[in-house]
Amino acid sequence: MKSISLMGATGSIGIQTLDVIRQHPEEFLLSAVSAGRNMEKTRDIIREFRPSLVSVQLKEDAEKLRSEFGDITVLHGEDGLIETACFHEADVLVNAVLGSVGLHPTLKAIEAGKTIAIANKETLVTAGHLVMEAARKKGVQLLPVDSEHSAIFQALQGENPKNIEKLIITASGGSFRDKSRDELVGVTVDDALNHPNWSMGAKITIDSATMMNKGLEVIEAHWLFDLPYDQIGVVLHRESIIHSMVQFHDSSVMAQLGTPDMRVPIQYALTYPDRMPHPKGKRLDLVEIGKLHFEEMDTDRFKCLGFAYAAGREGGSMPTVLNAANEAAVALFLKGAISFLQIDDLVERALNGHVTIQRPDLGTIHEIDRNTRKLVDSWV
Ligand code: NDP
Ligand code: MG
Q: Where is the DXP reductoisomerase C-terminal domain (predicted)?
């Protein structure tokens, strides 16, 4: 039996991870969870799974839970996240928390030697060099949960990385894939949250609409697969059936296909190198699908993808600024404080105003992350 600690249990990936655990009670045990502020879901999770450790964002919520569930250790804040990440009973950490708040706990989990199934892409974008170096030193495995990276990881099984010509990341195009920039003026939060293929958390759904999600995934792929940006491409693929591909020097392309169901890559990360049945999942029916389509990405239309490539190539602290500015801008958009197209503008302004620091350490990253968020907020 594999013991799992789960950060971000109340979110979209968290809930789907719980469903995978629920489907295989003989294989998985949930030993620790962290949540943010959603106490209703946190209580449901405690009642159903009875984890030994629970961590929530706020002190007052932790106190309430402690009085309700006497037999469970309840912590809060960043210390609580770190305790969840490093929980001694857990064999695997699923990091499904949202945003760069996941960075410090991830580094601590690596120090503690935990295998990490990582969905939390902002952590890799903001400090990929620190995470990958720590993982290499400690011999810790980072298993991708993001569907594109899981697809690439699966396509690379048994292959020599030296033979890779290019990674081809597929993009659904998000909620506004058929709108011109002019048509994006005045689109609402609800329009942006209406993703054609995937049901996900709010922030990543907005990132899909701006195409920042693909940009973050390009940087994530750079770190996970140790490849330069020239060898990472993106192609628009409306059906979200091919989750990504690897092209090799001999011109062969390996692809992983499936219905858009995050439980498949989550489960693969938990069972790797083995596989288990996914009884609830709809099977892929290629005849029913009939056709798959591929189009070139338009980086004039989707500016954030271009910003991410540029920030990734620049390296150093620039991806930290990209991520922090985007997290701040998306939060402002979701609150109704800015328009959709202002997300691009705020990110661009933050990038243009930043002078790169090479190889920033954790303290510098935290400082740049904080200052960039403050700056973006101050512009609105
Ligand atoms: P959600 O917004 O649905 O969930 C985020 C989770 O993180 C919730 O449990 C939330 O708690 C918790 N959380 C947020 N902020 C804090 C904080 N400051 N301290 C502690 N906990 C916090 O996000 P998703 O599940 O959509 O995404 C999670 C990660 O996975 C992201 O990095 C995303 O890019 C990545 N990902 C998501 C995919 C998807 O299909 N959703 C696909 C691929 C990658 P609460 O709700 O209780 O406040
Ligand atoms: Mg993805």
A: 257-374
Neighbouring-strand partners of residue 171: 236
Interval between CA 226 and ligand 1 midpoint (Å): 25
Whether 272 maps to a domain, the answer reads no
Instruction: Identify whether residues 108 and 18 lie together within a single domain.
Output: yes
Q: Is 77 annotated as a binding residue?
A: no
Indicate which atom in ligand 1 lies nearest the CA of residue 262: 40
Ligand 1 atom 17, closest CA: 36
Calculate what percentage of the chain has a pLDDT beyond 90.
96
**What is the ipTM metric for this complex?**
0.99
Q: Would you say residue 310 lies in a domain?
A: yes
The domain of 304 spans 147-261+283-314
Is the full-model pTM beyond 0.95?
Answer: yes
> What is the C-alpha separation between 247 and 262, in angstroms, rounded?
24
Tell me which residues have their CB closer than 6 angstroms to ligand 1. 8-14, 34-38, 57, 81, 96-99, 101, 119-122, 146, 198, 200-201, 203-204, 262
Give the number of the atom of ligand 1 that is nearest the alpha carbon of residue 15.
Answer: 25
Q: Distance between CA atoms of 157 and 202, rounded to whole angstroms?
A: 32
Report strand pairing: 53-56 vs 28-34.
parallel
282: pLDDT strictly greater than 90: no
